[in-house]
Amino acid sequence: MNNKTISFILFFLIGLFSCKNQNQNNVKSIISKAIKIDLSEFKELSKNNFSLVKDVAFFQLETNEKSLIGSVDKILATDKGVFILDTKSTNSIFNFDFLGKFLGKIGSEGNGPGEYSFLGDMDVDYKGDLQLLDLRKSKILKFQIDGKFINEKKFGFMTYKFAVLNKNSYIFDQGTRDNSRFRNDINLDYKLITWNPNLQRLNKFLKYTDVYDSPNYPLPNTHNIYRSGEKLNYLKPYEYNIYNLSSEDKIIETYDIDFGKHKIPKSFYLKYSNANEAKKIVFDFRKTNFAHSIINIFETSKYLSFNFSAGSNLYWVAISKNDNSFFVKDLSKMDLNDYPFLLCPNAVINDQFITILRPEYIPYLIEKYGEEKMKEVGLSILTEHKLNMNPIMVKWNLKNSFQ
């Protein structure tokens, strides 16, 4: 037996042991502590017209050749500043302080140590270090906040999005069922998996279903895991339950959003069994009165906040964590004092919400309300913005009383 044959056998046995060890995975049940939120009459509830927003502050993100953002895919806010992930245009992560000053980029594209190929996601860990998900190379890269590379870990399977759970483990969102069909190494039939690289252990949560997880459905949201400080919230696409991702062994169902007659019936999905038809499902939602596409699930110490759509209208909801009362706003009928901010909260830091106003959205506001009106309510910074500039960052809070 020659050296090449021996090397091949050893490589095969190591790989077999590795896969077998990693396949020591466990199916975990969801712990249900769900509070039912009755939004069946959300259209009536959303007719209130009082302002909700206070303590608004605007910051123009510095624009130069190195800091120019092409698109905003995800935002993380930490004590050290704001991180913006751009996967569509520049394949980069930009770091700004809370006054809008550009601090630099995190990592760079390439094939060497500390370099990534195709960014899919980012998260911050318990130490405050930033961790990046490289989809193409199936690895996680860890950086200090100042951009210094620390290490990287290969996880050996395809995935979609991720978050850091604790010191030793991660949770992965597997996207649509179709994405996992070619992953024969671990044969994933579940929406979420947790991975502990030290123990090579996988736990699986939320089994795919035939009705809501057709391999032909497009993903309605870019991200379904939302970080608010140390808390992680998750929403399974096309469904109405919000989960808290607490540890590698435990996921807790915290809210059951009840839209009553506005909930999409299972019979609606059955029309889209054909692959070509299924691609239209998100667009067809907009032709109905059904509530769909819950996004932007963030929470402060007092409120849990999210957006959802019904037909073609976008709504905003805040749930009081004190008594579970809630407030609904129809954003198509809102006053200028609230509209730009509740439209799309992107992050939370120190009990404040952060919204990134994208440049392409600002001309729409000017056209809808007029420059003079915007100046009257203190939005002069928006009227002075140019399309070739970086987005404007807004920090804001909710009023203590909604009456």
Secondary structure layout plus pairing:
Blueprint: H1 3-22, E1 25-27, E2 31-38, H2 42-45, E3 53-60, E4 74-78, E5 81-86, E6 92-96, E7 102-105, E8 108-109, E9 115-116, E10 119-124, E11 130-134, E12 139-143, E13 149-154, E14 161-164, E15 170-173, E16 190-196, E17 201-207, E18 225-228, E19 231-235, E20 241-247, E21 250-258, H3 266-269, H4 275-278, H5 281-285, E22 291-299, E23 303-310, E24 313-320, E25 326-330, H6 339-342, E26 347-349, E27 352-357, H7 362-369, H8 371-376, H9 380-383, E28 392-398
Structural summary, described in words:
It contains 9 helices and 28 strands. Helix content is 15%, strand content 39%. It has helices at 3-22, 42-45, 266-269, 275-278, 281-285, 339-342, 362-369, 371-376, 380-383, and strands at residues 25-27, 31-38, 53-60, 74-78, 81-86, 92-96, 102-105, 108-109, 115-116, 119-124, 130-134, 139-143, 149-154, 161-164, 170-173, 190-196, 201-207, 225-228, 231-235, 241-247, 250-258, 291-299, 303-310, 313-320, 326-330, 347-349, 352-357, 392-398. The protein has 403 residues and is mainly β. It has one domain (30-398): 6 Propeller (Neuraminidase). A hairpin with a 2-residue loop joins β20 and β21. The model is unreliable at 4-23 and 180-187 (pLDDT under 50). A 5-stranded mixed sheet has the order 1-17-16-15-14, with no helix packed on it. It has a 5-stranded mixed sheet with strand order 2-21-20-19-18, with no helix packed on it. A 4-stranded antiparallel sheet has the order 3-28-27-26.
